[in-house]
Each structure stands twice: as C-alpha cells, then as structure tokens.
Amino acid sequence: MTTTASPGRPPAGAVRPVPALSGLGTTWYERGARYWLRRALGAVLWFAVLAFFCYIALVLYGSFRDDLPPTVRTVWDRAQAVASCAALVWGWQVQRRDHHRKLQDPPTPEQTRRDKRSGTRRSVGLTLAGRVLVLIAAIAAPVMPMCAAWCVGWVAAAFTVREYPSEVGARRALQG
Q1: Does pLDDT of 28 surpass 80?
Q2: What pTM value is reported for the model?
C-alpha cells in the first residue's frame, strides 16, 4: 500500500505529537495546573526583574531631582507623574497591538524555535548594548521613571493575554 503523505508529514489519520513550546513545554495543549504554574512563574520572574529596573530608575531620578530648586522640583515631579501614567498606557497599547498583529499570522512551532535560537545568538550583542545603555541611563535620569512606566505597561500587557501567539500557531499546526 502506498501513502500519499509528503516527506516530513505524517500519513493521513496518524496522530501528530504535541509540539513543545519554549517556556511552556507541552502544557499549553491541555492548559491545566502545570500550564498556569509555568505562566505564573514566568510572570513573577519578569516582574522581579522589572521591580529591580524600576528601583534603579527611581534612584537615578532621585539623584537628578535632588539638584533641582524646590519650586522646579514640584513642577517636574508632577510633570513626571503625568508623563509616567501616559507612558504606562502607551506601553500597554504597544504590546496589545503587537499581540493582535501576531495573532493574525501566528508563528508555527518551527518558526518559534528558530526565532528563539536567533534571539539567543543576539544575546552577546545585546549584553554589550546593555552596558552602553547604563551609561546613557545616567544621562537620561530625568526621564527614567517614564521609561520604567512604559516597561511596566508593556510587560503587564504581555502577561495578561489569554493565549500566546506561539500557542495559536502550534494549535493551527496540529489541526493541519
């Protein structure tokens, strides 16, 4: 008997294995307690890193703020509070729009793995860029709370989605 399956594809009627996704493994398929535990732990890790970033941003801002005269300091603090609230909403909107765009054309599990490997290869360059950004942050101290608020909005939006685009892509790949 001959099969009509193309190379690399299982024959019709064969059960396809559930692909493992980065950070979620195969737990995304049934979305049980292990899935939600992995998502919660990922969010906790990100928010811990973000809390440290916000602390550094506020310390840098405080060092800049101490040199301002009292009247200017009051005006600057209020302007910073308004700008930070706007940046928080902006970060949320940027992430949500990107999420919706990715849901329109979700990546397959192979594309997700390729993108993850590509991101890992770039990490050396990003580490060097991060060191340069520390120097720039010292110069950008007056607007660091606004930058931190944007990051908080972006990360909060990233972790409050119902499902990630990689899950949608993997589910579509399973359906054929």
Answers
A1: no
A2: 0.76
